[in-house]
Amino acid sequence: MKYTTAEVRNMWTVGAVLARWRIVELAVLQVQAELGLVPMTWYNAAKWKPGPSVEEFHRHEDECGHEMVAFLRAWDPPAPVHIGLTTSDVIDTATGLAFLNLRAHTYKTIRAFSTEMTRLITDSKQVRSLARTHGQPAIITTLSTTWGNLHDQTMNAIGDFRRDTDRLTRARIGGPAGDHAHAMVSWTVQDRVARTLNLASAASLNQVAERNSVASWAASAARVCTAIEAIATVIWTGEQFQIEELYESSPVGSSSMVHKQNPAAAEQLMGTARLARSMVEPLYSGMVHLGQRDLSHSSVERTLIPQLMGLVLYSLQTMTSLLERLSANHENLARSIDHSHPDNMRWLWLIEAQLQGHTYDKARQIASERQE
User: Fold this and answer.
1) How far apart are CA 313 and CA 256, in angstroms?
2) Could you read off the pLDDT of 115-141 as tens digits, one per residue?
3) pTM (2 d.p.)
4) What is the pLDDT of residue 286?
5) How far apart, in whole angstroms, are the C-alpha atoms of residue 100 and residue 127?
6) Residues 151-162: pLDDT tens digits?
7) In the chain, where does the domain assigned CATH 1.20.200.10 lie?
8) Per-residue confidence (pLDDT) for residue 281, from 0 to 100
9) More confident of the two residues 361 and 207
10) Of 234, 306, 314, 328, which one's alpha carbon is 20 to 30 angstroms from that of 15?
11) Residues 329-333: what's their mean pLDDT?
12) How many CB atoms lie within 10 A of CB 372?
């Protein structure tokens, strides 16, 4: 994965995934033993067996074609494990563990972004700028207002993303159809496994609810990337030739045209947002099931959840770095305001004429004809 962070990349290596599967299997076996459902000696024997190597896992996977069976064969603890569980029980709960382990990294990344945006808002309170609507001169505003609106939009999306991430940071132990079909996968087992792993306990055991949560998370993740794209678009516009109201210090602009200072970071963030949005539909499709359970969602989630999580955090980190390098060109900001005069005053003149009692059409004519 290119557009991700080191923390996300390391969280979803094959070795890290197998380690989480072992943690979940042992937590379930421990709870089953504590409840008297199996001998405690089984758990004591299994916990000392290290997880399988990646090479051994792949060898078994090539032979049987089923990754969970391959994991269990490669691990081969000296006691029964995976009692009553399904592959989805283990993987969904392990995904919850991954999100839990990334929580500190996620919050740190969000705080860094918000801190940098807040600095820009504060530093640009007195910096006048020309507001543009439909690409045309509108009224005079401040850069602080622009940054403030973008910050609010992004933090709103981040709030939903955090909420939906927390909904996936949970244990789900439901058995074949998610219906408490056996004491080994009861609500009690799930709740105690959740406490053991420091996760929330899923409110529903069934696949439909879990896939719905994944779909909601995907949408909020794409919203964060799109909100970052909105900031990138403002920066990109401000850096364009003959506008040049914003400046991004960057060591290299073009591989061939050495005079150019391309807004490469902003354009990259526009691209990653498009990529994030393209991931939403496949994850939404996981809400559709053949009967109570099927595997059509599995390959999609296994591929896209790590990539989408990486895109969100990469986009926030990259935007934070871009904002740190961003400067306002006060001379060109003032030039844009001067060049748009008197057009940027006509809105106020329209209001002034209306308050004098003129009809809308007459007031519009007065404001259009006025020159100073």
Assistant:
1) 31
2) 999 999 999 999 999 888 888 888 889
3) 0.91
4) 81
5) 41
6) 999 999 999 999
7) 6-249+260-341
8) 95
9) 361
10) 314
11) 90
12) 5
Angle between helices 264-284 and 207-238 (to 10 degrees): 160
- How many residues belong to the chain? 372
Question: According to the 3-state scheme, what is the secondary structure of the chain?
Answer: CCCCCHHHHHHCCHHHHHHHHHHHHHHHHHHHHHCCCCCHHHHHHHCCCCCCCHHHHHHHHHHHCCHHHHHHHHHCCCCCCCCCCCHHHHHHHHHHHHHHHCHHHHHHHHHHHHHHHHHHHHHCCCCEEEEEECCEEEEEEEHHHHHHHHHHHHHHHHHHHHHHHHHHCEECCCCCCCCCCCHHHCHHHHHHHHHHCCCEECCCCCHHHHHHHHHHHHHHHHHHHHHHHHHHHHHHHHCCCCCCCEEECCCCCCCCCCCCCCCHHHHHHHHHHHHHHHHHHHHHHHHCCCCCCCCCCHHHHHHHHHHHHHHHHHHHHHHHHHHHHEEECHHHHHHHHHHHCCHHHHHHHHHHHHHCCCCHHHHHHHHHHCCC
Q: What is the CATH number of domain 6-249+260-341?
A: 1.20.200.10
The overall average pLDDT reported for the chain is 91
In degrees rounded to 5, what are phi and psi of residue 247?
Answer: -135, 130
- Tens-digit pLDDT profile for residues 17-55: 999 999 999 999 999 999 999 999 999 999 999 999 999
**HSE value, Cβ hemisphere, 13 Å, CA-based, for 60:** 16
Cis peptide, bond prior to residue 80, ω within 30 of zero: no
Q: How far apart are CA 29 and CA 24, in angstroms?
A: 9
Report pLDDT for 130.
87
Predicted pLDDT at 202: 87
User: What tokens appear for 245 in the block?
Assistant: 């109201």
